[in-house]
Design goal:
Blueprint (H helix, E strand, L loop, with lengths): L4 E12 L2 E13 L4 E5 L6 H8 L7 E10 L2 E2 H12 L4 E4 L13 H12 L4 H14 L5 H5 L8 H13 L5 E5 L7 H18 L2 E6 L2 H5 L4 E6 L2 E7 H6 L4 H8 L48 E4 L2 E3 L13 H11 L12
Helix pairs in contact: 3-4, 4-6
The structure holds adenosine-5'-triphosphate (ATP).
Amino acid sequence: MTALLSVEGLQTHFFTRDGVAKAVDGVSFSLERGQILGLVGESGSGKSVTGFSLLGLVDPPGRIVGGTITFDGAELVKGGEPMMRNLRGKRIAMIFQDPMMTLNPVLRIDTQMVETVLAHEKVSRAEALKRCREALVMVGIASPDERLQSYPHQFSGGMRQRVAIAIALLHKPDLIIADEPTTALDVTIQAQILAEVQKLCAETGTAMIWITHDLAIVSGLADRLAVMYAGRVVEEGETARVIERPLHPYTKGLIESVPQGKTRGARLQQISGMTPSLLNLPQGCAFRPRCSRADEACLEEPALDEKLPDRKVRCFHPWTLDPVADARSAALAEKARSRTDAIVTETVP
Ligand SMILES: Nc1ncnc2c1ncn2[C@@H]1O[C@H](COP(=O)(O)OP(=O)(O)OP(=O)(O)O)[C@@H](O)[C@H]1O
């Protein structure tokens, strides 16, 4: 199958007074229709800049300096702003951590949703309103007419985020880029929204990139994972397989720092050391100073290679020979495998 989105060697750099911050430096992954990709990594690893690059929303002092973004056969880096403007909001939509980045506080929901439809499509106001109602129902809002007549401040945080997701869905996009959209919500609401998003992607064929620092969230949501460290993808593959048998020491460290039921109360493993400054990266592998497996070979920069079928890893010493996944890996992998069973069908009144 041809990928809906294929990102190859993407580089987005920020030209600051203090030097060049290579926020995204050789990021590659691909995504098929209806698939969910979890883009994970610690703060500052370049996840959001990757998302903004795909939408052509990187402002100076940043710019894309290399690589290709192929979306449904069109190469967006070469196509530049005119091509990206055409796709933005319509075929590629974005959901932010703060729903108020999408919502206008002084307009009723029906006004802003209807205007969004009419801005891109020649349909009647009645048809636009019907579409808005349908989009709200899709995100689990059971009384759309009532909600449409409300202002954003009359909603809870979870409800506002649902509305922002509904707005992203209005043009039936092929791809949604979601940047930590549930981080500020409580766990129950988060779980409901994740389940609805999963159902939506399966039903509509919309693909999604879910950006998060929280591996536990994407382990139950994403089909595929791309793990980022210091501007690079260090591991990419099918979620259950990556979690069951992480190959990159950084991925393994992330998994070991996720609290799990069985190990609750036990001391969590933290990845020692700090993420490096992008202005002063260590020589060779950027993870080297924090890595227990590093040696002099790691003074060279490893490439992102296919070390197992359908599994790319950027490491000279991956954990290929580690046969037994630890308890945390096994539990998370189980969650990833059973994720479709866990879909919450409950709707919100
Ligand atoms: N406007 C900017 N000017 C200069 N550097 C920037 C700018 N925006 C981002 N960067 C650089 O890019 C790096 C990666 O930022 P990004 O927001 O993508 O990280 P992230 O992985 O999404 O982390 P977080 O979860 O904290 O948002 C930053 O640490 C910073 O060095």
